[in-house]
From TrEMBL:
InterPro entries the record matches: AAA+_ATPase, ABC_transporter-like_ATP-bd, ABC_Transporter_VariousFunc, P-loop_NTPase
Assigned keywords, A-Z: ATP-binding, Nucleotide-binding, Transport
Pfam families on file: ABC_tran
Domain of life of the native organism: Bacteria
Residues covered by the ABC transporter domain: 2-227
Species whose genome carries this gene: Spirosoma telluris
SUPFAM superfamilies: P-loop containing nucleoside triphosphate hydrolases
An annotated Gene Ontology molecular function: ATP hydrolysis activity
Name of the protein in its database record: ABC transporter ATP-binding protein
Gene3D superfamilies the UniProt entry points to: P-loop containing nucleotide triphosphate hydrolases
Amino acid sequence: MIKLRNVSFGYKRNRPLYKNLNLTLSPGSIYGLLGPNGAGKSTLLRLLSGLLYPQAGKLQVGEYVPGDRQPAFLEDIFLVPEEFYLPPVRIRQFIGSNAPFYPRFDHTQMMRYIQEFGLTDDQKLNELSYGQKKKVLIGFGLATNTAVLLLDEPTNGLDIPSKSQFRRLVASAADEHRTVVISTHQVRDLETLIDPIVVLSDQVIALNASVEEITARLWFGMVSELDNSRPILYSERAVGGYALVAENPMGEPSRLDLERLFNAVQAEPARIQKLFSATSILANP
Ligand SMILES: Nc1ncnc2c1ncn2[C@@H]1O[C@H](COP(=O)(O)OP(=O)(O)OP(=O)(O)O)[C@@H](O)[C@H]1O
């Protein structure tokens, strides 16, 4: 269980990025972390990894305080950052020198990923493209089998077939003991993978809800004309009419549209908070 209680952080003392941030993330889920540019998604992943320290509040990952950087904590968490450096060595050597830090590292799993990504372990990391390096690091992260896996914008730089491969590999590497957090802007790439959805915006968690909770409270769909038959949170001109995100008092089924959900959260944060407050209390005891 990952718990943030009243966490405050800012790179500059007088410019807080978050104030009193509260969030609970449970094992067994692949969380999608969304938020506008500069909201602090990467920063949150760095705080969870113990690379940064909260200025106030309490942050706990399982039984550990990340900032203490205890060895038992570090061997059970892996972060694939958006920007990274890999040394100029062969993939095989990279695995040989880094896998020993992760007691549950599975070499067979890693070799399978390398093969699936069309690579061989004798290739040199410095001779790979950005997307290929990223695949090596994502594969390594999955093969560590750490309890917490944090992926920052993992599909950036992946080609189209690799994105579906990525979804398949992450889905098969997730289990009930693992907490996976994926920060992304590429919502279309990950729509079918991430659940629950966490939106970080304006220094707070604007939404933390499962896809089931979201579609129970919100209706996503198309209408030919805008009228007052539904309480609209967000509308957008689309071919043949308007794409809507509306309140869903009758519990009508619809299919989540992450991009429009994100826009609705930005447009109507107070209404979203009110609509989801009952579940947020349950989700964040
Ligand atoms: N090392 C740093 N020193 C000072 N400010 C920083 C540093 N890293 C990030 N910031 C600032 O903190 C804010 C949050 O950055 P962060 O990278 O966490 O946002 P993000 O939500 O991941 O953004 P994006 O969606 O653009 O990747 C930004 O305003 C950024 O300029």
